[in-house]
Write a structure and sequence with these properties.
Chain A: Its main location: cytoplasm. The complex is a heterodimer of chains A (245) and B (381). Chain A has 10 helices and 15 strands. Chain A is an alpha/beta fold. At the A-B interface, loops of A face helix 6 of B.
C-alpha cells in the first residue's frame, strides 16, 4: 500500500528514510509526524528506528541496505553505528565502509537479490556489497545517469526508474534485475525517484505532492495492495503517456 | 564587447610567450590549460576577467603598455590576482526570459518558495498551485523554457478568487500577524488582508539576481493587473478581483548589526522617508540616530523594495531566524509594506530611473537580455 507523507515540508521522503523488508530507519525530525506514519504502517512487522548518520538527517541517501545487511559511510560516528547495530535484528549485518563516494544511497540501489552500483565505485566496495548484502552486483547507469541510487527505486517485486530511460535500457535493466520495471515520476513530476520514494515488498511511501496517477503506477509496479503491473497496460493506460513522439 | 575579448585573448597569448620563472611557469601553465580545457565561451571570459581587473574598460591601451614595460612583474601580478579570486571574477552572460507560470515550473517554484515563511512549515504546494492556476496575472523568469525559474512575481486578491480561504493564505496571515509587534499596525494589516481590493504580492528571487530584472517584472505585473481589471473579455468577477486599491508587499531586507551599534554613521541604507512606524523594539538600538531613526538602517537587496517602501502608507519589519551571523554579515528581516495602487506608478518610475528598465523602450518584448552579467560569485554568498 502506498502512503503519502512529508518530512518537515519536504516531499523527498527517500532522503530522510531507508526502508527494507527487515527494518526501517527514519531521520530524527522536529515533528513526529513522519516517524509516526512509518510506525503506523510498519511497526507490527519490522523494527522502525530513528537515527542520524554522520550527524545528518540524510539517512536515506547515505546508507544502503536490504534484508541481509546495512552499509554505512565512513563518516558515520561510532555512537550512531552502535545505536543502529543495537536496534536492528541480529540477522542484519551492519557495516561501515570506506568509500570515496560516501553517499551510498545515491550510488547503490539494491533489493534482496541484485544491486546496481555507480560505475566508479571501488572494487573493494563492490565485493563488500556482494558479501554483506548477499546480492549480485552490476555496474550500470540509469538513463545515462551514474547515480543509480537516485534515479531508480526497486524492490523484489518491481521497480520505478527515471522517466527518460529508453526502452532498450529498460529492457536491459529489467532482464538484469529480473523484475518488471516502469519509467515514471514521483512527487508531481520529479525525476529523482530514489529521493522521492521508499518502498519494500508490501509498503511504499512517497511525498504529498505525488499525483494519483503516479501513485497508481507505483502501486501497480511494486505490486502493492491488489494492484498488478499489468494494470499499467490495461486499466491505467488512458491516463499514462508512453512517449511524446 | 567582441573587440575587448579579442584584445584580451591576444594579451593572454603574449603572456604565454614571455619567458618566466618556475613559479610563474606554473601559473602560466595553469591558466593556459584552464583556458584550453574550458569551452570557448569561458576561455574568453577568463581573458575578459584579466582585462576586467585593470581599472576601466576604455584604458586597455594604457594597461597593455604598462604590462609590456615590466613583463614578468606585471604578469605575475595579474595572474596572482586571478589565481586567488579568479573564480569570483568570471563573468557569465545569462539570458533571462519571462514566461507565464506553467505546470512544468511546479518543482522549481516549490524550491523557490519553500522558505517563504522563513523555515516554518506551510502549504507550499498550495501556494505554487495557486500561482500556476492563476493564468491572468503572474510572471516567472527563466533562462529558457525548460529551465527552473530564477524568480517569480504574482499578485493575489486576498478575499476573492483562487487565494481566498486557502490554507497557505491563512498560514501567511498568522505568520505576518505574529511578527507584527505594534497593535495599530496589526490592525491595519488585518484589515488589509481581509478587506476587498487588496493585492498580495508574492515575489521571490534567487540570491544575487541582477537588479535589472526588477523593473521589467514589475512592469509586466502591473500591465497584467491593469489588463485583467479592464479587459472586457474577462467576466465581471474576475475584473473586480484584479481591481486592486492597494498592494501588500512582503519581502526580505537586511540590517547591519555593526551600524546599529555604532549609531549608523555609515549611511548604508536609504531612509524610509514617508514610511510609517518602525517596530517599537528596535528603538532602543537606534537611540542615537535621532529623527532619521525610523528605518535608516535598512539595506534593500531588491531594487523595488526601496522605492515601494518610500511610497508605502505603512510598513513594519520583523527579524527572522537564520544561521548564526558571521562578523560582517547582515541580519535578515522580513518587511511588510502596504502601497496604495495610485502610488505604485511613482515608485516604479523612480526605480526605472535608477535601475533602468530594458522593457520600457522595447515595448512588449518578452525577452530581456541579461545586459547585467551575472557574477558567478557563489562562493561570495
Amino acid at each position: 500500500m502506498a502512503t503519502r507523507c512529508q518530512f518537515e515540508n519536504s516531499n523527498d521522503v527517500g532522503v530522510f528514510a531507508k526502508l527494507t523488508n527487515a527494518y526501517c530507519i527514519c531521520a530524527l525530525g522536529g515533528a513526529e509526524n513522519f516517524y509516526s506514519v512509518f510506525e503506523a504502517e510498519l511497526s507490527d512487522h519490522i523494527p522502525v528506528i530513528k537515527s542520524s548518520v554522520a550527524g545528518t538527517r540524510l539517512v536515506g541517501r547515505l546508507t544502503v541496505g536490504n534484508r541481509n545487511g546495512l552499509l554505512l559511510p565512513n563518516t558515520t560516528s561510532d555512537q550512531e553505528l552502535t545505536h543502529i547495530r543495537n536496534c536492528l535484528p541480529d540477522e542484519v549485518v551492519v557495516q561501515r565502509i570506506d568509500e570515496r563516494l560516501s553517499a551510498l544511497g545515491n550510488c547503490i540501489a539494491c533489493n534482496d537479490y541484485v544491486a546496481l552500483i555507480h560505475p566508479d565505485i571501488d572494487r573493494e566496495t563492490e565485493e563488500i556489497v556482494a558479501d554483506v548484502l548477499g546480492v549480485e552486483v552490476f555496474r550500470q547507469t540509469v538513463a545515462g545517469n551514474v547515480l543509480v541510487g537516485s534515479y531508480c527505486a526497486f524492490t523484489n517485486q518491481g521497480g520505478l526508474v527515471h522517466p527518460k530511460t529508453s526502452i532498450e535500457d529498460l529492457d536491459e535493466l529489467s532482464s538484469l534485475l529480473q523484475i518488471p520495471l516502469v519509467a515514471g515520476t514521483v512527487n508531481r513530476g520529479s525525476d529523482v525517484i530514489g529521493a522521492g520514494l521508499v518502498a519494500n515488498d508490501w509498503a511504499a511511501f512517497c511525498g504529498l505532492d505525488t499525483t494519483s496517477t503516479e501513485l497508481s503506477v507505483i502501486e501497480s509496479v511494486f505490486k502493492l495492495r491488489d494492484a498488478q503491473p499489468m494494470n499499467i497496460i490495461n486499466d491505467l493506460r488512458a491516463s499514462l503517456i508512453d512517449t511524446m513522439a | 564587447m567582441p573587440k575587448r575579448k579579442a584584445e584580451a585573448q591576444l594579451k593572454r597569448e603574449e603572456d604565454e610567450e614571455q619567458p618566466s620563472d618556475g613559479v610563474e611557469d606554473d601559473d602560466n601553465d595553469k591558466n593556459a590549460s584552464e583556458g584550453d580545457d574550458e569551452p570557448d565561451g569561458e576561455g574568453n571570459d577568463e581573458g575578459d576577467s584579466d582585462e576586467g581587473e585593470d581599472s576601466s574598460e576604455g584604458e586597455s591601451d594604457d594597461s597593455d603598455s604598462d604590462d609590456d614595460s615590466g613583463p614578468e612583474a606585471s604578469s605575475s601580478e595579474v595572474e596572482s590576482e586571478d589565481d586567488e579570486e579568479g573564480e569570483a571574477y568570471k563573468e557569465i552572460n545569462v539570458q533571462f526570459e519571462f514566461f507565464d507560470p506553467q505546470e512544468r515550473d511546479f518543482l522549481g517554484l516549490r524550491a523557490l518558495l519553500n522558505t517563504y515563511l522563513d523555515g516554518q512549515q506551510y502549504d507550499c504546494s498550495g501556494l505554487v498551485d495557486a500561482i500556476i492556476k492563476q493564468t491572468a496575472v503572474g510572471t516567472v523568469v527563466k533562462s529558457s523554457e525548460e529551465d527552473d525559474p530564477f524568480a517569480v512575481l504574482t499578485a493575489f486578491n486576498t478575499c476573492q478568487g483562487i487565494a481566498a480561504g486557502s490554507v497557505w493564505l491563512t498560514q501567511l496571515r498568522e505568520y505576518l500577524t505574529a511578527g507584527c509587534s505594534d497593535p495599530a499596525t496589526r490592525e491595519k494589516l488585518s484589515k488589509a488582508l481581509s478587506g476587498p481590493g487588496t493585492g498580495l504580492l508574492v515575489s521571490e528571487r534567487l540570491i544575487n539576481c541582477p537588479p535589472q530584472l526588477a523593473p521589467p517584472l514589475m512592469q509586466m505585473l502591473m500591465e497584467e493587473v491593469d489588463g485583467a481589471a479592464k479587459d472586457e473579455d474577462y467576466p465581471q468577477e474576475e475584473r473586480e478581483e484584479f481591481a486592486f486599491k492597494r498592494f501588500l508587499h512582503v519581502t526580505r531586507v537586511y540590517t547591519d548589526p555593526q551600524d546599529e551599534q555604532e549609531g549608523g554613521d555609515e549611511g548604508q541604507a536609504a531612509g524610509g522617508s514617508g514610511a510609517a512606524s518602525a517596530p517599537g523594539r528596535d528603538s532602543s538600538l537606534r537611540g542615537k540616530l535621532g529623527d532619521e531613526g525610523k528605518n535608516a538602517l535598512i539595506v534593500y537587496v531588491r531594487p523595488e523594495d526601496e522605492y515601494l517602501h518610500q511610497v508605502s502608507s505603512w510598513s513594519f519589519t520583523f527579524p527572522v531566524e537564520s544561521r548564526p551571523l558571521a562578523k560582517g554579515d547582515l541580519r535578515p528581516l522580513r518587511a511588510v509594506m502596504c502601497v496604495e495602487a495610485r502610488r505604485m506608478r511613482e515608485a516604479r518610475e523612480m526605480m526605472d530611473m535608477v535601475v533602468g528598465n530594458m522593457m520600457a523602450d522595447g515595448g512588449a518584448s518578452a525577452v530581456a537580455a541579461g545586459g547585467g552579467n551575472v557574477v558567478a560569485a557563489a562562493a561570495g554568498e
